[in-house]
Write the structure tokens for this entry.
Amino acid sequence: MIQPSELSFFVLIVKEGSLSSAARELGVTPASVSKRLAKLEERLGVSLLNRTTRRLSVTDEGEMYHAHALRILAELEEMERLVSNNHAVPKGLLRVNAPLGFGRTYITPIVSNFVKHYPEVEVQLQLTDHPLSLVNEAIDIGIRFGEVPDARVIARKIAANRRLVCAAPSYLKKYGMPKLPHDLMRHNCIVLRQNEAAYGTWRFTRGSHSETVKVRGTLSSNDGEVALNWVLDGHGLMLRAEWDIAKYLRSGRLQIVLEEFAAPPADIYAVYPEKHNASSKVRVFTDFLAASFHEPNRKAKGAVKW
């Protein structure tokens, strides 16, 4: 069986260009290098180098051996790096991008807990209305909702997140409770103008049946918090991610409408470039995120709880 030391030995000879130079690099005599090379060639049954008094040249078989040796040594080095990273203490700068409202409410306390456990990691949290480019902005981890369109990144689902139709009890008392999705067309619906292509289009499924409803209303905004406040004030119904309305559902300020009809989910993902897949700080932070979102008996304050 070929030993990595033999591969390294031959790669060194080719790099140095002479047996004497390789001998000096190894700290041995040129004769011992020549003898070791001869044994390697004898075992392989081919000549790897053409020797003259002035120079060495690599044979066709030697070229093939050298190319494969470089590849194998590189793979061994990468394997060692991956294995060692699994046990490495995470350290250094970690840049995280998250949606503005969600980041303030949920990611911020997670980061606070994370740096208590891993003080050698410096976290830079950027909260934005629109997702930043992971590559162009040098972001290590992005928090995203719904489907991840970019196949060039790795996406790990860290929490399920339903989209729910909701309204204030005062609105439902005045205008009644919708029973079916098409009933929404007779109601005042407050919509977000964050995606003009799907503006006011709400999709629902129940079993094998699906239905698309074009809703309308007297109020709309590109700001989710503004729209939610209008719903809380009793102006209409809204389709909103569960994380955003959970505390109002618990307090009774909002009620779920059409709960048996499922809207497309807004599941929460941690995404990162493939090159960061082996990074200790990325792996540990992603694990910490997932654990935080699934921690049992978590408190409402400073923790992730719908």
User: Anything to note?
Assistant: Residues 60-86 form the longest helix (27 residues). Residues 4 and 72 are 8 Å apart (CA to CA).
